[in-house]
Structure formats: structure tokens, C-alpha cells
Amino acid sequence: MTVPKTLLGLLKRYSPSGEEAGAVNFLVEHMGSLGYSQAYVDEVGNAIGIMGNGNRQVVLLGHIDTVPGEIPVRQEDDLLYGRGSVDAKGPLAAFVDAVAEIGEFAGFQFVVIGAVGEENDSIGARQIVDQFQPAAAIIGEPSAWDRVTLGYKGSAWARITRQQFTAHSAGESRSAAEAVVEDWIRIQKWAEEYNRDHERVFEQVSPTLSSMASNGDGFEETASLDISFRLPLSMTPQMLYKELGKLLEASQFEELGYAIPAHLGDKNNPLVRSFLRAIRQQDGQPRFVRKTGTADMNIVGPVWGCPILAYGPGDSSLDHTPNEHISVEEYNKAVRVLGAVLKSL
Amino acid sequence: MNTNCQECDAGITLESSTEVNEILVCPDCGVELEVTSLNPPALELAPMEEEDWGE
């Protein structure tokens, strides 16, 4: 089976977050050779290709960075192995190829973006969110060629710190380390209580203890926990931080990184209808999915306020794994689905 | 345009502005239905909404 050139070119250029330049330069040059009206690298290093100059803008936002861990690119029958084959060079390459096949289309402008930094702080999406005002947006993430992703949970991080005078271990006082462990247990119980009436994971608060540390100098001791939270639509990061303020007794907490609220797109709009129709045209039975992770949809969705969904070939259970691979046949089906969608909007 | 719910057989009237692939909610049983044809009017159960990991 012939390997798609766009996908193969991206896979051959290993591009973990912060090291995307080689893949970005390839993609920009490649989009130029495919007939895009414009192809350029923006201020933060995103690869951007524009096809046509119609009034109705459709943004296809993929990401070109991957998690670290290079996987030798190889093909075994229909399967193509390589870091990012699923998350998310497969979906991004499918965007590029689908738009190239359509070419300029009256009344429309298609914007394909290979954003940098999605696996890190989403610097690429934050850069472009104010640059475009699409009538419809498709986010490039793997969900299988016959599924449409409607939304993602939000995320937030916090560091909890307890600093106190050192206590003698033979005494009754708790150590700083014990105190933050009790904070963690309190947070877990609060989440369990919140989740009691929310059966689906998409609707639950999901805290994860990601690291812990403690130290002392004989006079004072400090203990800290870093906790990540996956958030439902019903809890914004601001609501979470307010709850933490109530839950923690003598410990302090600080917000870490960029907090992102959950986002769920509408499923009754022309964009979703086009996908349902196009998947059926390829003999598929369309399905919807809500993801319990977070993606660039969470950043652009609330700002753009247009019909939005995520789509892309690939089995997302292979995301971030050493066995990451994609079916070329599935990739080609996704390109056909995207082509049919873009021509019917 | 009249048709029936695939789940509970309730009678459903499609408005003239209805589009193919539009998703409706059955007023009787609450199930989501997808309009798969307008002429003749036809409904199917809307695609299932799954949940999985991914970002």
C-alpha cells in the first residue's frame, strides 16, 4: 500500500514539543508544493497553510508536536509506525491532503494549522486564537475515521505546600509531610462526593497526585504536592481553586501552568451533519465521543463560538505509547471523509 | 411530514425547515433521533455518544 507523502514526511521529522522546526519547515514547503495559496511559519513557529480567499473561513487546527520518545518509522503491511502517527500527525496530514485535493473552493477559505506546543502549554493555539474568526473549525485529534469528538474535559494544576517548625517525631505534632498527605486525602474525598451523582467520567472531577516532595533544615520543614485535575463542564478552574481554598486548612496552594475549562460543542449544526453524512458515504456507522483528556479545542472553542468538533484517523488508545501506529487504509478513508465535509459546508 | 420514533413509535411531525442529518429528540421517550431522509421522511437512532481517553 502506498504511504501518503504528507504523513510520511511528518513522521520522518521527529518533533517533540519545543523541537518542531524541522517538521514545520517541511510542512510549509510541502503545502506550497501542493498548491496552497499561502504557506508560512508564524511568530511562534506554527505551520500555516491557506487555500483560497472566500469569505467563509474554515480552520483545520492540528498539532505538529508530539510527546517525547522517538519511534523508528517503519511500515508493516497496512500499518505505519512512528511517533505522532496517531497523536496527531495522522489527523494533521489528513487535513493537509484533504484540502490539497479540493483546492480553491468558491466562497471558502480553508486554513490548515500545524500548531506547536500542544503537548505542553499550547503556545501555538494561544497564538492563533485571535488571528482567525472561522465559520467552522475542525480540531485534528485521533478518534477513528468514523467517530466525531464533541468535547474535552478541562484541566488545572495546583501545588499545595505546608511549611512549619520542625516537630519532634516522638511528639504529638504532625509533620509537614503528614499534613499534606491529609490534604490529599481530603481532596480525594471531596472529589468522590462530587462525583457521586455523576456516572460518566466526562462529568466527574478527577484529581491525580503527580509528585510530592519534602525537606527541612532542622528548624523548619516544608512538604508539597503537585496535583492535576481533570474538570467537567460543571466546574471551571476558578470554581476548583475556590474549593481548594475551602478544603485546605493551614496549607497554601498556588496555581500552576495554564488552567483550561472543559468544552463541549453542539452536535446539531451543519458541520456535524456533514460529518455524519460523509462517514455514511464511506459505509461507516458514525458515532460521537466525548474525551476525558484536554485538547486545543478547549482554547479556541470558547473564543471562536462557531460549530467545532475534533476529527482524525487513528486509535487514540495508542496515544503516547511506544507502539504508536496508524492504518494507511483508515488514513485514506479519513481524507475522503474530510474532503466530502469541506465540499458540503 | 409525519414519521415515527424508532424507539417508542411515537408519531413525529417534521417541520418544513428540517434538514437531513439533523438530530431531534423524541417528545415521548426522549431518545435522540437522526433525520436520515426527508422524502420519504425517515428517522434512525442518533449515533451513540461514547466516552474515552484522549487529548
Helix and strand layout, with pairings?
The complex is a heterodimer of chains A (345) and B (55).
Chain A: H1 5-12, H2 21-33, E1 38-41, E2 47-51, E3 56-63, E4 74-76, E5 79-81, H3 89-102, E6 108-115, H4 123-128, E7 136-140, E8 147-152, E9 154-165, H5 176-195, E10 206-216, E11 220-231, H6 237-247, E12 252-260, E13 263-264, H7 270-281, E14 287-291, H8 297-304, E15 308-311, E16 325-327, H9 328-344
Parallel strand pairs in A: 3-6, 3-7, 7-15, 8-14
Antiparallel strand pairs in A: 1-2, 2-6, 4-5, 5-16, 8-13, 9-11, 9-12, 10-11
Helix pairs in contact in A: 1-2, 1-3, 3-9, 7-9
Chain B: E1 2-4, E2 11-13, E3 23-25, E4 32-38, E5 41-45, E6 49-52
Antiparallel strand pairs in B: 1-2, 3-4, 4-5
Describe, in short, the structure shown:
By secondary structure, chain A is of the alpha/beta class. In chain A, 32% of the residues lie in helices and 29% in strands. In chain B, the strands form two sheets. Chain B has a three-stranded antiparallel beta sheet, with no helix packed on it. Chain B has a two-stranded antiparallel sheet with strand order 1-2.
